[in-house]
Amino acid sequence: MLAGVVGATLALSPELLLVPGGAYLTVPALRSPLLVVALVAVVVGVLVARRHPGWATVLVLMPFATTAWTGWFVLGWWAGLVAVAAVAAHRAPWRALPPAAAAVAVTSWFTVSDIVASVPLGSSAVGDDGRDGLVSLAVMLGLLVAAVGVATVGGMVDRRRDPVDDPADDPDAAERARRARELTDAAARRISLVAARAEMAPPYRYRDGGADRRAALAALAVDARRALGELRHALVVLDHADAERPGVHRSATDSRAEPRARAGALR
User: Fold this and answer.
1) Is the N end or the C end of the chain the one with fewer CB atoms within 10 Å?
2) What is the CA radius of gyration of the chain?
3) Which residue, among 24, 33, 1, 26, has the nearest Cα to 12 in the 3D structure?
4) Which secondary-structure segment (H or E) carries 73?
5) Max CA-CA distance within the chain?
6) How far is CA 23 from the centre of its chain?
């Protein structure tokens, strides 16, 4: 949603061409290769902000480098920084520090310099009036603080409502669970085989000290069965965690068939 709003703002902000007399001629953004590339960079930055706020900040800051030769920038790029900060703050407030710091720097630069900003359907500049600069600074910083504050509160509410949200964001969680399940399953099969062989060992092989050896095998079988029970419990826990993880959808047939197959293998 934020990426769409920022993208629409950038699409309406024209390219500025300085003409004799100090005036600016406007060119629609979608006809300017420079602004199209900048639009893509900023929108992609907002989209990846949840997982990679640092890289998102770099992407949104890249278009600002063009001000070295154009003499103007698009105010929507600053809005992109605010959006990145809000998205990052929704997950964790500290993640919003890089984009928020960048937004503050851009705000200060815009309000104390003569740089011109492209805004939807026109241009804007603070000028030499100190009062206008203070008002612009207060408004822009207020919008930044409001956006980050609302996103932070919203993230806290969402995490309390759905406590499994953060683990689900880990892209490696499913892979780790799959590997743990496979290792546990393989170990359980081996222990089951040891227990079965210990219980089925023929007694005629132990003529000398046979009673002691049979007792040792029986104890081994008991220990193996206990370990097997613990591994079965671990498999059940992994199955429940897999079923409750958001984004993991398993059919009813698979859910019923897999535990039965494991139960047969671990007897």
Assistant:
1) N
2) 32
3) 26
4) strand 72-74
5) 113
6) 44
75-121 pLDDT, tens digit each: 999 999 999 999 999 999 999 999 999 999 999 998 888 888 999 87
Tell me how many degrees the CA angle 82-142-132 measures, rounded to the nearest 5.
110
- Listed in sequence order, the residues at least 6 apart from 118 whose beta carbon sits closer than 8 Å to its beta carbon are 13, 14, 15, 16, 26, 72, 73, 74, 75, 76
- Integer Cα distance of 240 and 121 in angstroms: 55
Q: Is 195 exposed, middle or buried (0-12, 13-18, 19+ CB in 10 A)?
A: buried
What is the distance between the alpha carbons of residues 143 and 206, in angstroms, rounded to a whole number?
A: 85
Angle 236-257-233 (CA atoms, 0-180°, nearest 5)? Answer: 10
> What phi and psi values does residue 201 have, to the nearest 5 degrees?
-60, 130
DSSP per-residue codes, 47-67: HTTTT-HHHHHHHHHGGGGGH
Q: Could you tell me which residues come within 8 angstroms of residue 88 by beta carbon, excluding any fewer than 6 positions away?
A: 49, 50, 53, 56, 95, 96, 98, 99
Q: Are the beta carbons of 99 and 50 closer than 8 angstroms?
A: no
Q: How far apart are CA 114 and CA 64, in angstroms?
A: 15
E-assigned strands of 120-232? Answer: 122-124
Query: Which structure tokens are listed for 173?
Result: 């969680």
Give me the average pLDDT of each 10-residue run along the chain (267 residues): 89 87 82 93 94 95 93 93 95 94 94 88 70 84 94 90 55 69 73 69 55 68 74 72 56 47 48
